[in-house]
Amino acid sequence: MLDIKLIRENTEQVIELLNRRGGDFSYLIDLVEKDQRRRELIIEIEKTKAQKNETSKKIGLLKREGKDVSEILLQVETFGESLLDNEKELKELEEFIYSGLLNTPNIPNESIPVGKNEEDNLLLKTVGIIPAFDFEPLAHWDLGTKLDILDFERASKITGSRFTVYKGLGARLERSLINFMTDLHAHEHGYTEIIPPFIVNRDSMLATGQFPKFEEDAFRVVDERELFLNPTAEVPTINMHRNEILSGDILPIKYTAFTTAFRQEAGSAGRDTRGIIRQHQFNKVELIKFTKPEESYFELDEMLKNSERVLQLLGLPYRVVTLCTGDLGFSMRKTYDIEVWLPSYNTYREIGSISNAEDYQARRGNIKFKRTKDAKPEYVHTLNGSGLAVGRTVVAILENFQQKDGTIKIPDVLIPYMRTDIIK
RNA sequence: GGAGGAAUACCCAAGUCCGGCUGAAGGGAUCAGUCUUGAAAACUGACAGGGCGUUUGUAGCGUCGCGGGGGUUCGAAUCCCUCUUCCUCCGCCA
Hints:
By secondary structure, the protein is α+β, with helices and mostly antiparallel strands. It folds into 2 domains: about 5-100, Helix Hairpins (Orthogonal Bundle); about 120-424, BirA Bifunctional Protein, domain 2. The chain has 13 helices and 18 strands. The chain has helices at about 5-10, 10-20, 30-65, 70-100, 140-145, 150-160, 170-190, 200-210, 235-240, 295-315, 360-365, 390-400, 415-420; strands spanning about 120-125, 150, 165, 190-195, 200, 220, 225-230, 245, 255-260, 280-290, 320, 335-340, 345-360, 365-370, 380, 380-390, 410, 420-424. The chain has an 8-stranded mixed beta sheet. The chain has a 3-stranded antiparallel beta sheet with strand order 5-7-6. α3 packs antiparallel against α4 and α7 (about 170-190) crosses α12. The chain binds one RNA strand of 94 nucleotides through α3 and α4.
C-alpha cells in the first residue's frame, strides 16, 4: 500500500511514475481530495467527542455527590446527531480511500526500464553455455513419459488438467531438488528454514498484495472460514510478522521456505498446456527477507546471487533480466527474473524471480521495526525471491541433460540426494 | 465432534458479579541514579504503546486504545452480540 501522505504531497509525480506501468492512475487526484475531506471531518468529530467526554466525566462527578443531573443530560443529547452523520460520512470516505489504496500497485523504482511487456526487459547477463545436441532433443513431457517418471494421464484421472504424477526417479528428482536448494540456502547462505502453513487467510493475501485485485487466481477452500491455498511461500512467510514491531538488531531476517504453491492460472487458459511448466500445483523453495530500508537493495542483489548459485551448481544455462515497468508485479518496485534455457522452447523461460517490495507489503501488513528501544517504529522492507521453482528446475534438468539414448545425466551436486547419476 | 475455562501494558497479575476521578492496583524485568574501588544487594526515580488528526515540530493538545469487530449508555476493561486464539476433560484420528 502506498502512503496517502506521499500521494498527497507528490500527487503529480506519483501518478506519472505509476503510469509507467501502463494504465491511468489519475484517479489518485480524487483520492487526495477525499482525503482532504476526511481530515476535515476528523477535526470536527474529535472536537465533539472531546466535549462529550468532558460532559460525561462531569455527570459522573455530580452523581457521586448526589446532585441532580437531568438538566445536563438533556444538554448532552444534542451532541449525538451531528456526530452520527459525520461518523457515517467519515467511514464511507475511509473505506473508499482504503479500497483505492489497496487496488493501487507499488510505484516502480525510477531506475528500472520503462516498457510495455517482457520484450522491454533489460538483459543483465547470460551465464553458461547452451547445450549443442548432436541428436534431436526431446521436450520434457516426452522424456518424462518415455522414462515413466511423469504421468500426465493418470494425474488428470485423479484431479484434472494441469496436474502431474511424479513417479520413481522423477519423484526423487523433485524431492532431491527441494532438499538440495533448502540445504544450500540454510547452510551456506545463512537463511532460516521455514515450512509454513499451505492454507492462508484473507488478511494474509491482502497484506502481500494478491488480494483484492487477483482473487480469481487463488484456490479457495470451501469452508465457513475464508481460506485459500497458498499461491507462493511469500504469502505465509511475509505474514509471519504481520502486525509486529521487530527489534532493529535482528534485521535482516532471512528465511528460506518450502511450500507447495497452488494457482488457478485463470488468465493463462491456453498457454503452456503441455508438460509441467504451468501447473495448478507446484513446489517451490523461496527466499524471504525483512530488512531495514537502507539495506534492501544490497540484500536484493545478495538474494539474486543466492538464487543464481542454484543454477550454477546444477550447471544450467540461464540469464538474468531486470523487469521493465510494464512487466513488474503489483506489489514490487524492482524485480529480477532468472530465466533458464529450455531446449524444447528454444528460449529462456522464467525459473525464478527476485523482488524488492520496499515498504509496500510492510504497510499493508503493518510490519515495522525499531532502530533502538525508544525509536519511532518504521516500516521494514520486504523482499522475496525464488530459490527456485522446483518443477521448472526438473524441466530444465531433463531437457538440458538428456542424452542421445534418452537417459538423463544427473548433475554432480544432486547425486548424493538421488543416489544415482542417471535416470534411465 | 461434545463439555467447560481463559484472553488486561515487555512478563506475571488485580479489577469484570454491583458501568462513572481506573487513560488501569501490585509484583517482576528493563533503564537512570544513590551507595561502592568495581559489581551485587538495598534504596530512589522512570516505565503504554501504537494509529490518526492538528502543528515548522521526535514539543504540546485532541482522539482511539484492556484479544478483533459491532452494539447498549451521557459514560464500558466492566453489560449485550459476534468472531478469533489458547487451555482442560471426553470422543475421533496421522
